[in-house]
Design brief:
This protein folds into two domains: 1-30; 31-160, no CATH class. Helix content is 48%, strand content 14%. It contains six helices and four strands, in the order αααααβββαβ. α2 (41-54) crosses α4 and α4 (82-96) runs antiparallel to α5. The longest helix is centred in the N-terminal third of the chain and has 21 residues, at 6-26. 28% of the residues are buried.
Length: 161
């Protein structure tokens, strides 16, 4: 029935091409079923930035801290380039977000997205004495991610969660 209509045939073939393209993108390089976690990271990052503002996590530090500490790392192992993908997605989302994104919001979204992808990430709070400045960043394996290289030397660590 569908073959008699050229309109349906044309759209069915484009659908098959789209599905085969997405399948090769999702299952490339032996990443398997874990690859779906790293798909659509920019929209997920934008939603995370929006949720931070809507839930008022910037005004309620205790709620924000609970949110980060309760966010569990996904069980499957992460793809090799998951950290780079998440950092790029958060960078793009921060550019497109209508408000200015500060370090607390950025590090919360980065940490939660990395944990969603299966990466053991920690959100770190730190401060320096003179002049007093506080800062938040994300660490993976005791290395600051998407941050200045000397951030761990400049700021003393208050807490890792």
């Amino acid at each position: 029935m569908a073959t008699s209509c050229p309109f349906m045939t044309r759209h069915a073939s484009s659908y098959v091409l789209l599905v085969s393209y997405l399948r090769t993108r999702l299952w490339r390089r032996g990443e398997g079923k874990e690859a779906w976690r790293t798909q659509f990271l920019v929209p997920k990052a934008l939603l995370g930035l929006l949720a931070f503002d809507v839930l008022g996590l910037g005004r309620n530090f205790a709620r924000m801290h609970r949110c980060v500490t309760r966010w569990r790392t996904a069980q499957p192992t992460a793809p090799k380039d998951a950290v780079d993908r998440v950092c790029n997605a958060v960078n793009y989302a921060c550019v497109w977000y209508p408000k200015r994104v500060l370090c607390l919001q950025r590090s919360l979204v980065t940490t939660c997205l990395l944990r969603h992808c299966g990466v053991q990430a920690k959100m770190v709070f730190g401060a320096q004495n003179l002049p007093f400045k506080a800062h938040a960043w994300t660490e993976v394996g005791d290395r600051a991610i998407n941050e200045r290289k000397d951030v761990q030397k400049i700021y003393g660590v208050w807490e890792r969660c």
